[in-house]
Task: inverse folding
C-alpha cells in the first residue's frame, strides 16, 4: 500500500466522543450532507459498520465503506470495499493528550502507483478538513450538553412579551434544560432543544407542520406532542407557557401576581 496523504488535527474532546463518532454511521448524510447524500447500512457490530455511501457531487456514484475500531489502541480503519476509490484504506489513530484533548492522525493509503494519486490525496485532505470541522462542532456541543445534564432551580421563568418570545432563535432555560418557543396551531408552545438521541440541537428553527428536524441524524419531532416520527423517542416534556395580565409570558408555573388582578 502506498501512502498518498496525511492529515493531523487536534480536537478539544475526549476519546469517548471520538470513538462514538467514528462508529456512528447514521450522521453521515445529515451532519455531513455536503459530502454524503445517503447511507445504507450493510452490516454492523459493536466495533464496526459497513455502509453504502452516496457521494455528493458524484451523481449516482457510491462507495461501500467498512470501518473497524480498536478502542484499545485508538485506531480505526476505513476500507473502501467497492465503488469510488475502491481499495483505499484510511487509517486513523487517536491519541489522548488530556481528558478533553486528543490528536487524530489520518493516513490515506491506496493499493498502487496511479497518475491521479496526488490529486486524490489533496482531495481527501480537503474533504477530511470539512468532515472534522463538522464533527468537532457536534462532539463539542454533545459534550457540553452531557455536562449540563443537571437539574437546575425550580420555579417560574419570565419569558417576555409576545414580541420578545417571537424573535427568531428565542430560547429559555428551565430546570437546567433549554427550550425553544414558537406559535404552532395558534398557540405558543415550548419544546426541548435537546434531541433525545445524541443530544443534538433542536432550537433555532421554526417548526414546519409542527415538526423540527435534528441536523445530526435527521430525526424529526412533533413539538406539539414531543413524539419522534422516526423512532420510539420522546422529547423532554416542556413547561406550559402562561400569559399574565400584562401580556407577559411565563414558563413552568402559573403567571405571577399581575395575573391575579384580572
Ligand atoms: S442527535 Fe441524533 S437525531 Fe438528534
Ligand atoms: Fe463524522
Result:
Amino acid at each position: 500500500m502506498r501512502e498518498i496523504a496525511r492529515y493531523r488535527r487536534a480536537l478539544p474532546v475526549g476519546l469517548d466522543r471520538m470513538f462514538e463518532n467514528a462508529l456512528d454511521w447514521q450522521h453521515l448524510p445529515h451532519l455531513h450532507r455536503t459530502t454524503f447524500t445517503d447511507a445504507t447500512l450493510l452490516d454492523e457490530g459493536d466495533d464496526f459498520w459497513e455502509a453504502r455511501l452516496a457521494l455528493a457531487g458524484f451523481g449516482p456514484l457510491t462507495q461501500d465503506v467498512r470501518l473497524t475500531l480498536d478502542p484499545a489502541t485508538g485506531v480505526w480503519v476505513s476500507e473502501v470495499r467497492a465503488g469510488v476509490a475502491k481499495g483505499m484504506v484510511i487509517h486513523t489513530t487517536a491519541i489522548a493528550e488530556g481528558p478533553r484533548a486528543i490528536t487524530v492522525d489520518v493516513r490515506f493509503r491506496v493499493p498502487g502507483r496511479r497518475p491521479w494519486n496526488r490529486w486524490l490525496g489533496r482531495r481527501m485532505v480537503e474533504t477530511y478538513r470539512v468532515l472534522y470541522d463538522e464533527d468537532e462542532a457536534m462532539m463539542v456541543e454533545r459534550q457540553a450538553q452531557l455536562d449540563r445534564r443537571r437539574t437546575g432551580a425550580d420555579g417560574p421563568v419570565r419569558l417576555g412579551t409576545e414580541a420578545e418570545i417571537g424573535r427568531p432563535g428565542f430560547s429559555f432555560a428551565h430546570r437546567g434544560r433549554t427550550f425553544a418557543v414558537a406559535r404552532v396551531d395558534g398557540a405558543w408552545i415550548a419544546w426541548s432543544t435537546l434531541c433525545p438521541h445524541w443530544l443534538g440541537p433542536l432550537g433555532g428553527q421554526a417548526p414546519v407542520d409542527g415538526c423540527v428536524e435534528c441536523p445530526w441524524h435527521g430525526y424529526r419531532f412533533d413539538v406539539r406532542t414531543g413524539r419522534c416520527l422516526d423512532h420510539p423517542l420522546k422529547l423532554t416534556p416542556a413547561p406550559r407557557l402562561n400569559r399574565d395580565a400584562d401580556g407577559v409570558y411565563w414558563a413552568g408555573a402559573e403567571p405571577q401576581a399581575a395575573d391575579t388582578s384580572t
